[in-house]
Write a structure and sequence with these properties.
Blueprint: H1 2-86, H2 92-102, H3 104-107, E1 114-122, E2 125-134, H4 138-141, H5 152-164, E3 168-169, H6 176-179, E4 187-195, H7 204-210, E5 211-220, H8 221-228, E6 237-242, E7 251-255, E8 265-272, E9 275-282, H9 295-365
Helix pairs in contact: 1-9
Length: 366
């Protein structure tokens, strides 16, 4: 019984060793795959962070370009307000010479013109009509005489500029130049108040009482943003919305390449001339591109290393198994040789015993 149990135990050993070798190979494959996955995920997160940083930098550049361009136009309006302080009421020839010196088309692209809207009381009602607008082309001529106070969005910006004494940007409007031609192009206006006092009146009541009118600039949104972002946005998808609630109704401008819906985007809320715009930017290929990325090499290297280590582990397991089988074979051969020697020794002992007995019998007979 003992010999049979031992034999059964010995017969199970190769199977157990083969199983342990397979488990070792599987463990190497699993560990290598896990390490490759962790390294790839880390590289992907690093690439995402890099893409996010690049997108944030691009968005900051676009935001700065828009803000700087509006500041330049504010400076132009302040120069116009300075002329009105010195010469009121200003004549059309003087205003025409002033705007010609400013070289509006070359220095201030995207601006439709620079105008003067004078405050007046007509039948007990306060109006603010456009009296001068240069360059006086066929489009701008359509805006002359228009009462800016007659439309709620324009009126809100006029009142904000009047009471603050600072530039004020209107909400999204359709310029009267376009409206009277049947166009629905998005636009906006920038207003700067002009008072009769040489310095800014101290109180809101004084500002309202001494208000002469406004220097203002009308803008078509498409022209303004396209010229402003020509050197900045590149192929990025850029959207600008009026206010802080992006929608089709509030869209001022959209340009750039289409991107997948789940692409990485950056949103900024810009406070400009007492008004808010929302800037949204999405770069093509965001959030992740593999061009120049180490991720494919990490995955390829990880898979290659894992397969190599698994192969080595399998080879070592086979070598160990073969060595153990050789040892077992040698032990079995030694055991058979020992048994054969024992049998031979037993046979010799028996022969010696028989021979001795025969000699004793022969001696007794004598």
């Amino acid at each position: 019984m003992g010999s049979g149990g031992e034999s059964l135990h010995v017969s199970r050993m190769p199977a157990l060793r083969r199983l342990s070798g397979a488990l070792l190979t599987c463990a190497v494959l699993f560990a290598g795959g896990a390490l490759t996955w962790v390294a790839a995920r880390s590289a992907i997160e690093s690439e995402k962070q890099r893409a996010r940083a690049e997108l944030q930098l691009l968005t900051a550049d676009i935001e700065s370009a828009i803000g700087d361009r509006l500041l330049a136009y504010e400076a132009l309006l302040r120069a116009g307000a300075g002329l009105l302080d010195a010469f009121w009421p200003v004549q059309r020839d003087d205003w025409q010479r002033f705007t010609a010196q400013m070289r509006l088309a070359a220095v201030y692209p995207g601006l439709q013109g620079v105008g003067i809207a004078a405050r007046a009381e007509e039948g007990g009602q306060v109006t603010t009509r456009v009296v001068l607008l240069e360059p006086l082309d066929d489009s701008n001529r359509l805006a002359l005489g228009y009462d800016l106070m007659s439309e709620p969005r324009r009126r809100a910006a006029l009142e904000r500029a009047r009471d603050s004494g600072a530039p004020a940007l209107s909400a999204k409007v359709v310029l009267v130049q376009d409206l009277r031609r049947g166009l629905r192009t998005a636009g906006f206006l920038l207003f700067l108040p002009v008072y009769s006092s040489p310095t800014l009146p101290a109180t809101v009541a004084e500002r309202r009482a001494t208000l002469r009118g406004f220097v203002y600039g009308p803008f078509r949104a498409e022209d303004f943003f396209r010229s402003t972002l020509a050197a900045t946005a590149g192929s990025a998808l850029v959207e600008v919305f009026d206010g802080n609630a992006p929608s089709t109704e509030t869209l001022l401008f959209r340009a750039g390449s289409a991107v997948p819906p789940d692409s990485m985007t950056e949103t900024r809320h810009m406070q400009l001339a007492a008004h808010e715009w929302t800037l949204r930017v999405a770069a093509p290929g965001a959030p992740l591109t593999l061009t120049g990325s180490p991720i494919p090499w990490i995955v390829l290297g990880g898979i290659s290393t894992t397969l190599l280590l698994a192969g080595l582990a399998h080879a070592l397991a086979l070598s160990r198994q073969r060595l153990q089988e050789r040892i077992r074979a040698d032990l079995a051969l030694a055991e058979r040789e020992r048994q054969a020697a024992q049998i031979l020794e037993n046979a010799l002992d028996a022969y010696v015993a028989i021979d001795a007995g025969d000699r004793i019998l022969a001696w007794n007979r004598q």
